[in-house]
Amino acid sequence: MQTYLPTLKQLQYLVALAEHEHFGKAAEACYVTQSTLSAGIRELESLLGIMLVERTRRVVRFTALGDRIVAQAHRVLREAEELAELAAAAGTPLAGELRMSVIPTIAPFLLPALLPQLRKERPELKLFLREETSGSACDSLHHGLVDCVLLALPYACGDVDHAELFEDTLLLAIPGDDVSHYPARVVPGSIDPARLLLLEDGHCLKDHALAACNRPDLRAGARMLGTSLHTLVQMVDNGLGVTMLPQMAVAAGLLNQTNIVTRGLDTDHDSRTIALVWRRNSPREKEFRMLADILKAHWRS
User: Fold this and answer.
1) pLDDT reading at 220 higher than 60
2) Which of 278, 275, 250, 252 is nearest to 263 (CA)?
3) Residue 161's closest CA among 276, 291, 280, 288?
4) pTM of the predicted model, to two decimals?
5) Would you kindly state where each structural domain of the chain is located, as residue ranges?
6) 20 to 30 A Cα–Cα from 158, which one of 114, 149, 185, 257?
7) What is the gyration radius of the CA atoms in the chain, in angstroms?
8) pLDDT digits over 90-140, tens only?
9) What InterPro entries does the record point to (predicted)?
10) Domain 95-301 - what CATH class?
11) What is the predicted pLDDT for the residue at 219?
12) pLDDT, tens digit, 9 for 90 and up, residues 233-287
């Protein structure tokens, strides 16, 4: 009996539809017409003999079995990509396409100085970047949407390997008018939780900042208002509270043209670890470690 297997293209269409929950947007992401994508998914359903998607005018809803097929499709596509990566890795290292997610509390402060140097050292490398929060970046990694992630640890990113690049110290940022109220190094226990401004959920820097304080009352009482570090800086500069900023952001000029001053934290947990993360057992591990060495060398220079 002849068995007909799904094609990678059909699985790509299915995964795109699950991601975008809209036929038109999924088709656009796959660079095909909506009718082509819809026909491909119908062919897949016919091939498998099951309904994967419930179609209505307004909603795209996957069946319970459809959700399971999507999860398996992610794994099949990721392994197919790793097959191609295995062949590519046998050639010139750090050449061709490489897709990397970078979290928002790293991207604008490290990449502007790094990318020109990387282009100079590795002109054949085509680096495609996605800026995402930590959770979204790890999801993209495991779904095969990116090859590696520039992340701040500790963070639970699943079954991954990583190379640590450097330590990034956290600093307390305070309004200039309040400078006399804070010593050169601030004991976390002295921070008023009602004055502490942090990023919204989804940003690992929030967890790193709270870990630096190691105070349950701060975790419950901190005001998580900022959508970005730039927003937090504007709040502090207007006297609305204090916040914690990574040293790399301050060194990159985040506080320029503000009246904000910084103080160190008198704690053993006053830093986050910047690391390059990739899927465990990736055939491109050697390349990722080479990239990590380049990033590390750039930071030290």
Assistant:
1) no
2) 250
3) 280
4) 0.73
5) 8-86, 95-301
6) 114
7) 23
8) 567 777 788 999 999 999 999 888 888 888 888 888 889 999 999 999 989
9) LysR_HTH_N, LysR_subst-bd, WH-like_DNA-bd_sf, WH_DNA-bd_sf
10) alpha beta
11) 55
12) 999 999 999 999 999 999 999 999 999 999 998 888 889 999 999 998 888 888 8
Write down how long the chain is: 301
3-state secondary structure labels for all residues of the chain: CCCCCCCHHHHHHHHHHHHHCCHHHHHHHHCCCHHHHHHHHHHHHHHHCCCCEEECCCCEEECHHHHHHHHHHHHHHHHHHHHHHHHHHCCCCCCEEEEEEECCCCHHHHHHHHHHHHHHHCCCEEEEEEECCHHHHHHHHHCCCCCEEEEEECCCCCCEEEEEEEEEEEEEEEEHHHHHHCCCEECHHHCCHHHEEEECCCCHHHHHHHHHHCCHHHHHHCEEEECCHHHHHHHHHCCCCEEEEEHHHHHCCCCCCCCEEEEEECCCCCEEEEEEEEECCCCCHHHHHHHHHHHHHHHHC
Per the listing, tokens 């704690």 go with 267
Question: What is the fold of 8-86?
Answer: Arc Repressor Mutant, subunit A (1.10.10)
Do residues 115 and 86 touch, judged by C-beta distance below 8 A? no
In whole angstroms, give the CA distance from residue 234 to residue 150.
26
Q: How many CA atoms lie within 13 A of 84 on its CB side?
A: 10
CA pair distance 204, 32, nearest whole angstrom: 36
**Is residue 301 very low, low, confident or very high in pLDDT (cuts 50, 70, 90)?**
low
Of 251, 204, 213, 260, residue with least CA distance to 232: 260
Q: Which two tokens stand for residue 5?
A: 């297997």
